[in-house]
Amino acid sequence: MKTRALILFAHGARDPRWAEPFQRLQALVQAQSPESVVKLAFLELMTPRLPELTAELVQAGVTDVTVVPVFLGQGGHVRADLPRIVDELKQQHPAVSFKIVEAVGENEQVLKAMASYCVATLG
């Protein structure tokens, strides 16, 4: 088992089709980082949720977890809910290293890619 995991953390929705772009993102990231486990977890309404997924990964031998919020901005879920959940996970799994990075929508490269797409739609 790989010891490093990258968890793409999304909000979740009632409609299962909502997760499709995140699943495609997961596949793209996994293809670019075959040495890591790349998984998708949700805050609510969908599974797996972050605590359950983390427990499975730790049981499988993962010792290093990076959480990437696949949110456009740093709202309450990213600023408050996610750090609280990860703090609880740190207490439950003290031998595991956890890191939360900025929301994807806050990253300059992502914003530039989105801007390029928007401009291209003017065609």
From TrEMBL:
Q: Where is the signal peptide?
A: none
Keyword presence, Translocase: no
List the InterPro entries.
CbiX-like, Sirohydro_Cobaltochel/CbiX
A Pfam match: CbiX
Origin superkingdom: Bacteria
Q: Which UniProt keywords apply?
A: Lyase, Metal-binding
Which stretches are transmembrane? none
The identity of this protein, by name, is CbiX/SirB N-terminal domain-containing protein
Q: What is the lineage of its organism?
A: Bacteria, Pseudomonadati, Pseudomonadota, Betaproteobacteria, Burkholderiales
